[in-house]
Design brief:
single chain, about 170 residues
Length: about 170
């Protein structure tokens, strides 16, 4: 309900969805089987993946008022990286356990969080950059009154318009 849009909500879920698909592929490739012990972490992976996606989408929505192609903000990228890295280190330490169930739990969670992290920092921002570029191009095609040196409309806060009094004074001088 935060985004008030199904499309934007689905974009926020993209890192989680792709991350889970990549996780399943990696588990198969590494011959790690899903069992009741390590399936417990799937909801944790889903939560972290969605959380990362929500942060990226919020960053996009906050920055889309400018007329530039979207680039993930440094603060958002750092926050996602730090939270995911600390989670991977914490749960990754379980891979050192002698108990097979705890060991596989650490493996699955670390791989899953890494996949979500990868998608949050690369795939989703790239997709949002494409979306913002298309939006800018659509605005240019509609005939924006002013363009920057890069051919994009400047942010609304940077566009100055003369007041009616100034326009009348300019006409009287001519």
């Amino acid at each position: 309900l935060d985004f008030r849009s199904i499309r934007v909500s689905l974009l926020a879920m993209l890192p989680m969805t792709l991350g889970l698909l990549q996780l399943m592929g990696l588990l198969s490739f590494l011959h790690i089987s899903l069992n009741p012990a390590n399936m417990i972490v799937l909801p944790l992976i889903m939560g972290i993946g969605i959380d990362d996606g929500v942060h990226v989408v919020h960053d996009y929505l906050r920055r889309r008022t400018t007329a530039t192609v979207y680039r993930l903000g440094d603060a958002t990228a750092t926050a996602i990286l730090v939270t995911s890295a600390t989670t991977m280190v914490g749960f990754g330490s379980m891979m050192l356990a002698r108990h097979q169930g705890i060991q596989s739990l650490g493996q699955v969670l670390t791989l899953g969080v890494f996949c979500c992290l990868f998608n949050s920092l690369t795939v989703l921002p790239a997709l949002l950059a494409i979306v913002s570029k298309r939006s800018i191009q659509a605005n240019v095609d509609q005939g924006s009154p002013q363009l920057t040196s890069e051919g994009h409309s400047p942010p609304a806060s940077l566009v100055t318009t003369d007041s009616p009094d100034e326009e009348q004074a300019d006409q009287e001088q001519d």
